[in-house]
TrEMBL record:
Residues 213-430 form the Urocanase Rossmann-like domain. The gene is hutU. This is Urocanate hydratase. GO terms for biological process: L-histidine catabolic process to glutamate and formamide; L-histidine catabolic process to glutamate and formate. Residues 436-639 form the Urocanase C-terminal domain. Its cofactor is NAD(+). Gene3D superfamilies: Urocanase like domains, Urocanase superfamily. NAD(+) binds at G125, G126, Q203, E268, Y395, G586. Binds 1 NAD(+) per subunit. Pfam families: Urocanase, Urocanase_C, Urocanase_N.
Length: 664
């Protein structure tokens, strides 16, 4: 069967032959055995409802074996035979160009070069899933191939609920992931209900079909590293950034370090993903012996090199050894998936990768003890370095949160609301006040033609637009504009593309709208093919996350999620092609609500109208909330937005005199 025929087939009438387990790929760890016998029967019933009754006797023992072996039912037999990658949009069987664009993005999320665990449909973060099983994938792609511009596909935590009558201005797809009743949103709830096949962890851009490989966070990481060095009044050249994690998004760290111009040491325990990053050119060198690492870093410091080094081993050993060897760390952080500490997001020191995976599945309580012991050790070593002058920041991966729960010495001496920890979140001191409060966040686009020359043309267009805007920009945002112009000019030479022909840069509402309008005009003029707009959920408006995106909100509202819900509702009726809202992502299940969107530009007048309506709201919704929290930069930004758009009227805060408060 051809590719198009397989898509249109959906779940086949006759079962394909079972597929051998491919040991060469990076696979998800075995999940813990959390279901009782009756719940396991329920999980099997839930899986079999995708199939004609005539197949149940064949599939039942197979699915039971998957559940017993892996802790989940992935339906490996249903994996398609065709290569998984983002094809040019014309190659998809579709009645709706918007639906074809979504198919392209789904396949990009599952591309072997992009996805962390492709056979388990996990894109990044250890558990960030596009779907829970391959039947869901097949059925979703079939629905998208069949749908018209007067239907909307409803996605229920990976499950395609179905096509519903709609209208051309409505979203083509509405996605929810993990939207649990609050009292059922603890880590073990994810394990249980995911094993039952009724919900999933969509991470941020994984379950919303908008992941573009490590590039998606390279830019944000580059800005963070650059501004981190600015904060300590040092140049990156010859100075050291130490962190950990090479899977999924955190693979961006060494590339960002190279772009910033520093020495980067990034520890990773998984040999397969380390080799992938080396082969992809995202790291320069791989070292397996910590003493050899010490020698290499000393040489790099002496010669003021710009280099990224992966240490295949545990980051705790790096922090402890560098302390003993008096290697000064200028910037320090951590980007292991500590939102998922008990199921492969963090590997404890003192155990091999293989032994840790075995203990994780078979002795989960002991594994948890080992993780918490390791976090205490890591925090202790970090404290020794910060006493010597290291600037350490939490990189929004829940490191400080989980370390505090483990009893580590990470709490502030004089804690205040929003400043509970000894070290800041990078959003609190860098990204929040410098970017998000001004409305700058990770705007991204994908060239649906799949042509590198289209991407090069869009880079050129975006750069021209930003340079024109910068000529009239206020002083307060000149640094952001300059950083982004420099970024986009170097985007091609930095070889950031993994998977789809995609790009990301930080822009405010004005920048996003003007860039998008310029793209739409270029499409109309047949200079480029269709373009898919999106953004990271890690942005100004889409995410309520008290320990990351909204950690610099100090009015007590950082534990509310109104903004994220408002954002996705507003995007839905202002013209987004698809929208998503998730529980969990980045910092963990139950710790964040986050939303995203996708928008297809096709050169039409209608697309021009939609992009202006939606992108303005998508940014200014968040600035309004941040200004109400009394963030000075956001007050400046929303006042500026109201001056340019007369129909925008936002409630502004009145500032209370602290001396008056202190007098009572």
């Amino acid at each position: 069967m051809s590719f198009k025929e397989q898509i249109l087939e959906g779940i086949p009438n006759e079962l394909p032959q079972p597929k051998p387990f491919d040991h060469s790929l990076n696979h998800a760890p075995k999940r813990k055995d959390i279901l009782n016998d009756e719940e396991k029967k329920l999980a099997l019933k839930n899986a079999l409802r995708y199939f004609d009754k005539k197949h149940h006797a064949t599939l039942l023992p197979e699915f039971k074996n998957e559940l017993d072996t892996y802790g989940r039912i992935y339906m490996y037999r249903l994996r398609p035979d065709y290569k998984m990658y983002a094809r040019p949009i014309e190659e998809y069987p579709a009645k709706s160009k918007q639906a074809a664009a979504i198919m392209l993005m789904i396949q990009n999320n599952l591309d072997y070069a992009v996805a962390q665990h492709p056979h388990e449909l996990i894109t990044y973060g250890g558990n960030g899933a596009v779907f829970s099983n391959w039947a869901q994938y097949r059925l979703t792609m079939k629905y998208l191939a069949e749908m018209t511009d007067e239907q909307t596909l409803v996605m229920y935590s990976g499950h395609p609920m179905g096509l519903f009558p709609s209208h051309i201005e409505a979203p083509r797809v509405v996605v929810t992931n993990g939207m649990m009743i609050p009292n059922y949103s603890k880590p073990d709830d994810w394990e249980k209900f995911n094993a039952l096949g009724v919900t999933q962890y969509g991470q941020m851009t994984a379950g919303s079909y908008m992941y573009i490989g490590p590039q998606g966070i390279v830019h944000g990481t580059t800005i963070t590293v650059l501004n981190g060095f600015r904060k300590i009044k040092k140049q990156p050249k010859g100075n050291l950034f130490v962190t950990s994690g090479l899977g999924g998004m955190s693979g961006a760290q060494p590339k960002a370090g190279n772009i910033a111009g520093c020495i980067t040491v990034c520890a990773e325990v998984n040999p397969k993903i380390t080799q992938v990053r080396l082969d992809q050119g995202w790291i320069d060198e791989k070292i397996t012996d910590v003493n050899e690492l010490v020698t290499r870093v000393k040489k790099a410091k002496a010669e003021k090199e710009t280099i990224s080094i992966a240490y295949l081993g545990n980051v705790v050993d790096v922090w402890e050894t560098f302390d003993k060897e008096n290697i000064h760390i200028d910037l320090g952080s951590d980007q292991t998936s500590l939102h998922n500490p008990w199921a492969g997001g963090y590997y404890p020191a003192g155990l091999s990768f293989e032994d840790a995976n075995t203990m994780m599945a078979n002795q989960p309580d002991l594994f948890k003890e080992k993780v918490q012991e390791s976090l205490r050790r890591q925090a202790k070593a970090i404290n020794k370095h910060t006493a010597k002058g290291t600037y350490f920041f939490d990189y929004g991966n829940a490191f400080l949160l989980e370390a505090s729960r483990a009893g580590a010495d990470v709490m502030a001496t004089n804690a205040t609301l929003g400043r509970e920890f000894k070290y800041p979140s990078y959003v609190q001191d860098i990204m929040g006040p410098m970017c998000f409060d001004y409305g700058f966040g990770p705007f991204r686009w994908v060239c649906a033609s799949g042509k590198p020359e289209d991407l090069a043309k869009t880079d050129e267009i975006a750069c021209q637009v930003l340079e024109e805007i910068m000529q009239h920009s206020p002083e307060e945002i000149q640094q952001q504009m300059a950083d982004n112009i420099q970024w986009i000019k170097g985007a091609q030479e930095n070889k950031l593309v993994v998977g789809s022909q995609a790009r990301i840069l930080y822009a405010d509402a004005e920048g996003r709208m003007k860039i998008a309008e310029a793209f739409n005009q270029a499409i109309k003029n047949n200079e480029i093919g269709p373009v898919i707009l999106g953004r990271d959920h890690h942005d100004v408006s889409g995410t309520d996350s008290p320990y990351r995106e909204t950690s610099n909100i100090y009015d007590g509202s950082r534990f509310t999620a109104d903004m994220a819900i408002h954002n996705v509702i507003g995007d839905s009726f202002r013209g987004a092609t698809w929208v998503s809202i998730h529980n969990g992502g980045g910092v963990g299940w139950g710790e964040v609500i986050n939303g995203g969107f996708g928008m297809v530009l096709d050169g039409t007048k209608e697309a021009s109208t939609r992009l202006k309506q939606m992108l303005f709201w998508d940014v200014n919704n968040g600035i309004a909330r941040r200004s109400w929290a009394r963030n000075d930069e956001a007050i400046f930004a929303i006042k500026r937005a109201m001056q340019t758009e007369p129909n925008l009227k936002v409630t502004l805060p009145n500032i209370v005199d602290d001396d008056l408060l202190n007098s009572i």
